[in-house]
Amino acid sequence: MASRTITEIFDRPEEFTALLGAAELNASNDWEDQFAADLRANFQRYGTRTYLSDTQLEQLERIAAA
Predict the structure, then answer these.
(1) DSSP code of 4?
(2) 46 partner at 20 to 30 Å CA-CA among 3, 20, 40, 66?
(3) For each of the chain's 66 residues, which pLDDT tens digit applies?
(4) pTM of the prediction?
(5) Residue ranges per domain, the chain?
(6) How far apart are CA 26 and CA 13, in angstroms?
(7) Exposure string over 26-52, b if 16+ CB within 10 A, otherwise e
């Protein structure tokens, strides 16, 4: 399970911010809320150099699609 940066995963940073925004809106419990908030904080701190594991990306996509 390798971690990759936002830049390595997405063609444009806006794709990540849209996915994160959808996850924030669709979070249905405290864990999902905190997960999205933690990712937002990391993104605000590190920008496109933020690392995501494959598992984190899968969870983000699952929450956003709910």
Answers:
(1) E
(2) 66
(3) 689 999 999 999 999 999 999 999 999 999 999 999 999 999 999 999 999 999 999 999 999 998
(4) 0.92
(5) 3-65
(6) 20
(7) ebeeeebeebbeebbebbeeeeeebeb
